[in-house]
Amino acid sequence: MKLQLPVSRFPRQFDPGLLEMMDRPDVDPSLLEDDLRNIQRINRWCGAYRLIRDELEIFLARWNARAEPRPSTCSILDFCTGSGDIPRVIAAACRAQNFPIRITATDINPRMTDQARRESADYPEIVFERADLLDPHYAPLSHDWVLCNLALHHFSAEQAVAALQNLWRIARVGILVNDLHRGRPLTLIVKHLIPWMSSNPITRFDAHLSTLRAFTADELRRLAFHADIPPPEIRVYPFGRQALAAWR
After folding, report:
1. What DSSP state is assigned to residue 122?
2. How far apart are CA 36 and CA 82, in angstroms?
3. Do 117 and 104 meet the contact criterion of CB atoms below 8 Å apart?
4. pLDDT in tens, 179-195
5. Which of 48, 156, 210, 228 makes an SS bond possible with 43, Cβ 3.0 to 4.6 Å?
6. d(CA 43, CA 37)
7. How far is residue 203's CA from residue 208's CA, in Å, rounded to a whole number?
């Protein structure tokens, strides 16, 4: 049965037959590589790195407050890693605090993990694997912190619920979904920033489509409810970003 999202002034538009260009099997490799670099620039300029640093601090506070014995190295699993820029931000922040981590960064697209591996050569604490968020092979409670970065809007509502269930099943301590927030700020950024910064057809097409497919905070909360996740923390950040965090 189709999942009903909360009523919104600007309803989510999702056509399962229309893939983002970066997700298409026949995508031009050189354009995809350039698009992933554009996404890094957008993430840097529009707050994704600030968001992940803020959410990392919240996770570390939770980690340090836990009463039970903790492993010597914190294990982090990142789904839909793209070019691996978010894991690199996490690794750099943890290095600065002398906090030992091991990050497994995954993507379903081997072209993306290949590029991410090349760009992460200076980060031995990050390893890259191919994995499908909708059919992951990781055992229950096998990783401390499980992340999905800027990918949930690629899925239908029903698929998003399944993705959240998988994140929650694998996580020992908590999960984080870092994604776009549908609304006027995101629409304005895509309308004015993207044409100025790049002529790449993948970047332009996917950015516009993402403004229509992103979830609102209320919709994220509804998805978490249907995924049987305890009431999450949802924080809306500037520049059309938001984070969903849930804890065991």
Report:
1. T
2. 7
3. no
4. 999 999 999 999 998 99
5. 48
6. 10
7. 9
Q: Which two tokens stand for residue 16?
A: 């399962």
- Name residue 180's beta-bridge partners: 241
Q: Which residues contact 229 (CB under 8 A, 6 or more apart)?
A: 164, 165, 168, 175, 246
CA distance 130 to 108: 5
The residue type of 124 is P
Q: Which two tokens stand for residue 225?
A: 């409810």
How many residues are listed for the chain in this entry? 248
Model confidence, pTM: 0.95
**Residue whose C-alpha is closest to residue 180's, from 239, 124, 228:** 239
Interior/surface letters 146-185, b for 16+ CB within 10 angstroms, e for the rest: bbbbbbbbbbebebbbbbbbbbbbbbbbbbbbbbbbbbeb
Average pLDDT over residues 84-108: 97
Calpha distance 137→106 (Å, rounded)? 11
**Cβ proximity of 108 and 130 under 8 Å:** yes
Q: What amino acid occupies position 231?
A: P
Backbone angles phi, psi at 81, to 5 degrees: -75, -20
Determine phi and psi for 169, rounding to 5 degrees: -65, -35
Q: Domain 23-62+70-247: state its class.
A: alpha beta
Helix (H), strand (E) at residue 169: helix 157-170
User: How would residue 1 be classed by pLDDT, with cut points 50, 70 and 90?
Assistant: low
